[in-house]
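2024-03-11 09:14:02 INFO receiving multi-entity request
2024-03-11 09:14:02 INFO entity count = two
2024-03-11 09:14:03 INFO echoing inputs for audit
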Amino acid sequence: MPEQLLFAMEVTLNGLMAGVLYALVALGFVLIFKASGIFNYAQGVMALFAALTLVGIQQGQVPFAHLINAVFGTEVHHFPWQVPSLIAIVLAAGVMILFAWIVEKYVLQHLIGQPDIILFMATIGLAYFMEGFGDIMWGSDIKKLDVGLPQGMNATIDQVTFDWFGYGFFIDNLDIVAAIVASLLVAALTIFSQYSKQGRALRAVADDHSAALSVGISLRFIWVLVWSIAGFVALVAGIMWGAKSGVQFSLSLIALKALPVLMLGGFTSIPGAIVGGLIIGVGEQLFEFTIGPMIGGATQNWFAYVLALIFLIFRPQGLFGEKIIERV
Amino acid sequence: MFYREAGDFKTSYRDDSQTFPIRLDRMGYYILMFVAFLVVPFFINDYWVNAVFAPFLIYAIAALGLNILTGYAGQVSLGTGGFMAVGAYASYKLMTSFPEVSILIHIILAGGITAVVGVAFGLPSLRIKGFYLAVATLAAQFFLVWVFNKVPWFYNYSASGQINAPERSVFGVIVTGPNTEAWAKYMICLVFVVVLAWVARNLTRGMMGRKWMGIRDMDIAAEIIGVNPLMAKMSAFAVSSFFVGIAGALFFTVYLGAAEAGEAFGITKSFLILFMIIIGGLGSIFGSFAGAAFMVLMPVFLKNVLVGGLGWPTDLAAHFEFMIVGGLIVVFLIVEPHGLAQLWRLTKEKLRLWPFPH
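2024-03-11 09:21:47 INFO inference complete, emitting structure
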């Protein structure tokens, strides 16, 4: 097989893996949008915050150490212990649930009935708040996240493809793990929303708020629930991204890319988020590989957005979105 | 007691529809203009112009522009930073290509070029709405910044990839470059702000503004009563981008002097200006100014208090700024979705009745 084609195949595979990570972030958006009609811009920052919290707990960092030191002139930084990964993950998930509860009680409660765009801007404010809060709580230096996920090139794939094509594909183990985790997560979410009582309530709310209220479903509980789930999804996404490229501010910018993913897939569809993520992941890698060198490279910065923009002009509701019906 | 429309008789339609119908407001406005044009320039120094006045005036223009698009016409845009970059690079190319033409013309032309780009990126707004459009404008943001970083023609093939404003003067007074005096910087921004605010005020209360507001409130209904959505949306994008482009041009030529697209006009700038109009008040000219003033003054204030007063490290203060800005956005949206402008309006209502309760 020609070298170029093999290259393209490898790029495509890597793009698919990157797409899984986009899809993970996009998943959190879809969950919240379906249940509450809120376009949660803060999802990316939630992933960053969750990852920061995880690393902080794991390494036994003192929360707000920077602030305490500045105010009292002390020199605290770490507790003398380290927390095992699994417990740290559970604790971080607990923090995200607490966060969901606080957001519901102090922000969303007061914004019920406001236009969508106001809610959207409120989540932008929330994102800024969390960004500052996370940095104050855990410090803004780049942190290394290690929860024992395998990393580095997958030797088996390299060997097998070498035997087949005479050229070994480079696939990161971490990406494979991410793909598996993402599919497990989607499966779990599907089972949860199809078969559990809360899951059914969730779908009822997504379908029609007032009708759900009238049959006795507590909107407040559902919102806390869905923000908690989104927080958990953010934690998973944060772990994956953090293990890949370190826990740092740019994490929340990468998460911005989940937006075109959503637009492509449709705001209300979980399969849409996955397919959209894969399309964007593969698309931007292939575009960079084929056209990129001709026009100066670094096209990943904008390709996703422009693709989504062009796509939307022809199909405003996205691939799997519900048809938009407008009435006066 | 003093703040009354009583006794201020309007004898013509012109009087009746003036911007400041109450005498005290009018006087306040004239006094403000007097102070701004004839007092401040004599006392201003480099610190004040660079830390407060120039950013305030320039951001006020950008906020006016975004407010026209978002507050009046209801089209949310996150591409403001990208459009400011268009203004900046357009003015740079014009200044270096036609050095003999006045910089005032260059800045206005830069606004015009930005308007054309804005309309091009605004075209999708005919098909997509709400936050779909907001995300679509992100495409403009990232694409434009990338173009300015990657195409060497835009920065005249300079090795650093930066653009530097050459020295230019208006009526013999240097207004750009490192030798600019504080008052000259201030005056050129002020002149643009006053003229553009006047334009914005009169556009928004005229036929065009009413069409925009119709589209904002309910686009289908507006279309049924005869507003052409194509013209209304495109004109909103054009006018808004014109303002933002001028702001970008001034930001680069007068304020920064040297700029790099990704750094000076990144996504954070888009959000900053969006926050200005949320805090200041959507759909209000006064709100654009109030929001710009707030967002410029707050970091200066925080820095002075936290770093200067309490001796905290600067990065901690920066994080606090993030928290406070984010928190304020949420609080404003909950408590007063119409922003500072609405608070100002309420104060004036109260003042009219004072000292009586009703």
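2024-03-11 09:21:48 INFO post-check: Chain A has 15 helices and no strands.
2024-03-11 09:21:48 INFO post-check: The domain at 3-314 of chain A is CATH 1.10.3470 (ABC transporter involved in vitamin B12 uptake, BtuC).
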